[in-house]
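ugh ok so i messed up the first submission bc i forgot one of the chains. this is the corrected input, ALL of the components this time, i swear. 322 residues overall. if the numbers dont match what u have on ur side tell me asap before i send this to the collaborators (the ones from the other lab, u know who)
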Amino acid sequence: IKNIGVLTSGGDSPGMNAAIRAVVRTALYYNLEITGIMRGYEGMITGDMFKMDRKSVANIIQRGGTILKTARSDDFRTKEGRERAYEQLKKFNVDALVVIGGDGTFTGASVFLDEFDVPILGLPGTIDNDLAGTDYTIGYDTAINTVVNAVDKIRDTAESHDRLFFVEVMGRDSGLIALRSGIGVGAEAILIPESKTDAGHLFKRLEEGRKDKASKIVIVAEGDDSGDVFEIAERVKEKFPNYDTRVSILGHIQRGGSPTCGDRVLASRLGVAAVESLMAGQKGEMVGLVNGQIAFTPFKHAIKHISEVNQGLLKIVEILSL
Ligand code: F6P
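and heres the new structure output, hopefully the right one now
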């Protein structure tokens, strides 16, 4: 390979810039050319690409978002869109790709790879941590720290007013942001889609919880199937009319901000490994980190929905929140 194209696609995540920097600098280290592709697969289709150099990625390791911008491309779902993308890659002499994103990104990469002879490797870039084949995705650590910082503040006011707060966090259909940040903030309960926490169980936990506790925090994953966070708060309010309840939805602050050192190092390691592995002839896989070691997982397996969570972590919530 001579010229690697790099793009970010899907929802952005803190650390994507660190990943881009690692890919660009590693390619240059090995005397390859490197082409930045704007707005994910959209830029591939429209030919919005440019040659990158060391300076293109200067001073970005600490910045949230992605300098290459990102999009969820509808056109790339069509055969015609992918053909146009392939023509553009040829035009710009791009002969390999590193795509940084989540399940949508890898689904697109997998289809493209089946149709065209362009080696692709993926880096897991999503705050949701919902990809198989890596212990952590790039952006997850920063997102959970953002949640912890925000909920610590909510805890202050909850404590002053003796309130019960329901805090909704992101994660799409995964509860991994809720689970880890919930432990980090000492939540009284966590509602996640991977565990059937029905309303009855929640009532019981709140009832059994220490009566003298001034504040209570329930972390609700946005994908939890027990309903909308406002509905859950309403049901609890009906059951315990004495509770002063409030709802807080953290929203997109979870996607922004300067990446933690953990995310920067993860992105750097994976970025270097992706370029070296492309050079060694690998393709069709996500590069992740499992037990501290670089690991490769075929795209089709990486995007498998993870419906199991670490039961030990759930147990920790049960034990520690009383
Ligand atoms: O996949 C990342 C994520 O932030 C999810 O946690 C969330 O459900 C979704 O993206 C939000 O997407 P959008 O930014 O398009 O509203």
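quick check: Residues 140-161 form the longest helix (22 residues). that seems consistent at least. The two ends are 58 Å apart (CA to CA).
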